[in-house]
Recover the amino acids of this structure.
């Protein structure tokens, strides 16, 4: 399935709590991405990283934070500042961020705020 | 930034007939247009893509056409089969720093009626 994994598959969190979603890839890809998927809204980019120790905000970065300390890992933290965090979160990677390189997606994490 | 619109949001087609999904984009600098298929409960996967120096690309039963002047591109599936039932997303990206990220359409849920 492309060597990109996400955990956990399902995550429940109480309001006001931060939570971290894991994304790991063994494809030796430089670029990694986090998307949020809501019904009827397609995939919206939260953050992306073109290389280790570097990342940029996407279209809906407010209330989220990321780190890229290792090439293989790009964890996403959903903070209490995110107003509506219940969603399906997809991580992706590509060999580089140059357009034309296929993005490979992980299986996703479904986050529910109780 | 880039804006991608996708139509229709749902499409039902008799098995064996053709299906067409259309997308428009706003940024004339965009030059890479992939299509992703997401089956129920699974991750999105690239099925075909096209670059702006090509007007049409075919891969067995699927084809993509691009009209740069009108800024629209379409996915064509011929001889549809039950396994074509899925949500399809179009996307667009540019080549220059700052617009290399993918912007996705809102998706089309395709149902093949046996």
């Amino acid at each position: 399935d492309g060597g990109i994994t996400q955990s956990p598959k399902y995550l429940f969190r109480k309001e006001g709590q931060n939570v971290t979603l894991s994304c790991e890839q063994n494809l030796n890809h430089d670029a990694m991405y986090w998307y949020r998927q809501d019904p009827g809204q397609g995939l919206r980019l939260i953050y992306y990283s073109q290389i280790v120790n570097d990342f940029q905000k996407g279209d809906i970065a407010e209330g989220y934070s990321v780190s890229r300390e290792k090439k293989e890992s790009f964890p996403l933290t959903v903070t209490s500042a995110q107003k509506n965090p219940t969603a399906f979160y997809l991580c992706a990677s590509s060999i580089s961020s140059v357009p034309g390189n296929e993005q490979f997606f992980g299986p996703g994490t479904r986050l529910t705020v109780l | 930034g880039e804006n991608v619109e996708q139509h229709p949001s749902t499409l039902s087609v008799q098995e064996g007939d053709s299906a067409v999904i259309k997308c428009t984009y706003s940024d004339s600098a965009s030059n890479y247009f992939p299509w992703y298929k997401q089956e129920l409960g699974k991750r999105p996967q690239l099925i075909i893509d096209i670059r702006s120096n090509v007007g049409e690309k075919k891969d067995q039963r699927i084809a993509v056409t691009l009209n740069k002047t009108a800024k629209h591109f379409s996915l064509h599936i011929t001889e549809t089969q039950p396994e074509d039932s899925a949500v399809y997303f179009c996307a667009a990206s540019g080549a220059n720093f700052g617009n290399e990220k993918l912007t996705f359409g809102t998706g089309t849920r395709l149902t093949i009626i046996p």
User: Anything to note?
Assistant: Chain B touches chain A through 25 residues (CB under 8 Å).
